[in-house]
Amino acid sequence: MKLRLRSIETKETLRIEVPTPCSLLHLKEVISQRIAASSSSSSIHLSLNRKDELLGSSSEDTVQSLGVTSGDLIFYTINPNCFSSETLMVQSQTPQESKISQDILPLEPNSQKEQPLDVNTQQEETLNLESGSEIEPAIENMYVDDGGSVVEVGKSFSVPCFLRKVFAKEVGDSDGRDHKLLVIAVHAVLIESGFVGFDAVSKMIVPGFHLPDEWPSSAFTISLWYTLPEIVVDGCYAVNGVETILLKFQSLGKFLNIYGSLAKNGSGLYRVSLDENRLVPFLNYVWANCDSVNEMNGNEWCSGAYAEREVFEFWKIVKDRIALPLLIDLCDRAGLAPPPCFMRVPTDLKLKILESLPGVDIAKVGCVCSEMRYLSSNDDLWKKKFVEKFGNAEGSQGGSHWKEKFAKSWESRKRRKMVEIMIAFQQC
Question: What residues does the F-box domain cover (predicted)?
């Protein structure tokens, strides 16, 4: 397996080849031998996105189990505080372990109560293809704390909450009216897809973008530039300038038209048209209410769930029709490896693939990356999984999100089976 390793401090890129499978410890040892500075493998920290550290339950976990594939760019540093340690951990399973191993999906730090969703990986659900009957495991483990919810999906892992964070950063205390929220929402899709803002005048990456203080109430046109961190770090702009993409926003009546293309000699032009009158109320709702999902009563939650579906639909359209096509074009122009094949699949098709998986496996898929985490938290998807597993949705237990209801029902059934086992054991 071939990998690219880039130092956070020096920006130097190493190209290595490691065996498949390769443990996390072995990869760190290879890096410690290649870098000039004398450092032990234990002092090396790795990340795929320059934010979250690659961690496992043990040093023997393979990098493949942590989401690393051949051709990936991995960032490394000896600074222990460079990456966030609040990352997704996959707990390994070895033949010597006598207890049931578990994959733990931790809540993000903004949750008030961090309660894990534990998934049984030793005795997984299997499907008898010949008879079509489901083989139940002897013990199913989907841990629920009696004092609270299993996973605050709408709060921790959803697209609306990612938008909420971007809104808080870019909008601040302003009113958010006059097209601002919709433009910033499109910007959030680009940022989540891996792009970074770029100043076409200073030729430098900018952490955000500066919108006009006063926006015209009628038609307007603005342009925003984006690039990829790998392009600037690799110095691809030394001769021909930084390879960038250009987004043009054009307001015509109640519609906001968005045109995207490569900034220089771009052959492909991508366009979406968004209805501001329809979308802005939902974006305002997400901005105002994402931090208070648990405080909603039943009627308010209905409007919240509807707003989340509308925002997800907006996200899917911009992602599939603007962000991913431009990402593919820009990687090709800059000579970078294309995005992973599965990520290039349209969102509707990715959801269809997830629909074919059991609920437990969907929870595991959410550990792969941020996009899959957002995708696997889709409420309609979990409602289907609930009906498939437990039947009538009308009899669902408490919880504002269908993933939460699924986990609670899973735990209740597990407890009933444990009671049945204990009764049968006492009767023997």
Answer: 339-385
